[in-house]
Amino acid sequence: MENPLARKLSGFAAFSDEDRGRLDELCVRFTTRSAGDTLIREGASPSDVFLLLDGWAYRYKVANDGGRQIVALMIPGDLCDIHNFVLKRMDHTIALLSDARVAAIPTERLVALMDESPAINRALWWATLVDEAILREWLLNSGQRAAYERIAHLFCEMWTRMRQVGLAEEQSFHLPLTQEGLGDTAGLTSVHVNRIVQRMRKEGLITLRGKQLEIHDFERLSLIAGFDPSYLHLSSVQPTPAQKLAMAG
Question: Which of 94, 148, 208, 222 could anchor a disulfide with 242, C-beta 3.0 to 4.6 Å?
């Protein structure tokens, strides 16, 4: 089975067999970690870049009053911070949302790989630009969208990203975020998130059972959210329902 990093990056560049072999080598040295484990703390000096082979991770910052803001969600195939090789100190913390297999890639190996393969170099930087585009969309989400739209947008985005790496079944995918975690991501209280989720259920949009989210009407949910997947730059993968809807219109 193709490793998740190759699956993700193949959406940004065409790889030779040699390139795919190089990407496979990055996945050899891994450990199994538990939900809640911290991969790297704010203020630490990184020596490795972490690659998620399975499971979810998140970046977060903590305010002076102890409040937590989740600033990024990472899924299989994501490099937790490709910029580690230029950072002297981490300015945020990365932790696991679920049990996971995590490959630790020495920064010098990643730099050498980028020198060895123009295709991999291009794909990695493209993936970095997508991360920045996601952050801009999250800023818009928090600053301009109503609470109901924020959660709808997050559900649409995460289904689309999971689909990109082959981990969404039809309209269903594993979502290891608690309501508190959803709140810390969207800037809402867990009570507010619970009301939104219950409303979405009543309106027939979703079913959230345990840690499995099923989206019953993606087109309607994406319209509510104002979700335009173009910021994810999925030009090489099959169009999502929202993209099909846009093309049909």
Answer: 222
Q: Contact at 8 Å (CB) between 239 and 248?
A: no
Q: Nearest to residue 225, comparing CAs of 151, 143, 137, 142?
A: 151
Distance, CA of 105 to CA of 110 (rounded, Å): 7
Fold of 145-248: Arc Repressor Mutant, subunit A (1.10.10)
Domain boundaries 4-127, corresponding CATH code? 2.60.120.10
Report the candidate in 204, 147, 196, 206 with the shortest Cα–Cα distance to residue 175.
Answer: 206
Count CB-CB contacts under 10 A for residue 166: 15
| Residue 89 and residue 29 in contact, taking contact as beta carbons nearer than 8 Å | no
What is the domain partition of the chain in residue ranges? Answer: 4-127, 145-248
